[in-house]
Amino acid sequence: MTIRPILIHPDPRLKKVADPVATVDDDLRGLAADMLDTMYDAPGIGLAAPQVGVMKRIIVMDCVKEEGAAPRPMVLINPQVTWSSDERYTYEEGCLSIPEQYADVERPAVVDVAWMDLDGAMQTERFDGLWATCVQHEIDHLNGKLFIDYLGTMKRQMITRKMQKLKRERARA
Ligand code: GNR
Ligand code: NI
Question: For residue 29, what is the enclosing H or E element?
């Protein structure tokens, strides 16, 4: 059980494109376990490796919300959206790298995603609702994109300034 520190925006690592994973080994399985621990501890419904400073294309998520429902931890390696609906869905998004800031983001309502699992096997699944929003938010992280990049310049700058202030305060504490 290892909780890793989560990078806070602005950070150059959150703007970079992450590298594809070539092989699944014990190191990668360890990283995935740490990412799930870190996500549940936060708590969050998703986490991408660049958020813990690892520039690899791996995401974890669990969007089960109902109290008492079985958790569904997922690990997606090299995830790719292979189809997205014309139908759109708007959700008030947040991000563990942008604490306490929320804004409506419109995205495809339904997406098909292909990925490699921790056994090196290919998987595909259709996601909708919160799962669709989350998986797209996480894949964006692998491409150096944050949810605030969908907002207008003013709103994005306001949030970035708040985060700069937060980081300064945390550095002094
Ligand atoms: O925990 C999270 N909640 C969330 C809410 C709405 C849309 C996306 C998310 S993902 C976020 C965790 C995170 O920052 N993942 O990168
Ligand atoms: Ni995020």
Answer: helix 26-41
Q: State yes or no: is 138 an active-site residue.
A: yes
Q: Contact 62/71 with Cβ under 8 angstroms? A: yes
Task: Provide the residue range defining the domain that includes 50.
Answer: 12-172
Query: How many structural domains are present in the chain?
Result: 1
**In a domain? residue 109:** yes
| Protein residue with its CA nearest to atom 16 in ligand 1 | 47
| pLDDT at 173 (0 to 100) | 79
Q: Within a domain: residue 164?
A: yes
For ligand 1, atom 4: residue with the closest CA: 94
Q: Which residue in 67, 125, 138, 169 is the catalytic one?
A: 138
> Average pLDDT of each block of 10 consecutive residues along the chain (173 residues)?
96 98 97 98 98 98 94 98 98 98 98 98 98 99 98 98 97 88
Return the closest-CA partner of residue 77 out of 14, 25, 39: 25
The CATH number of the domain holding residue 92 is 3.90.45.10
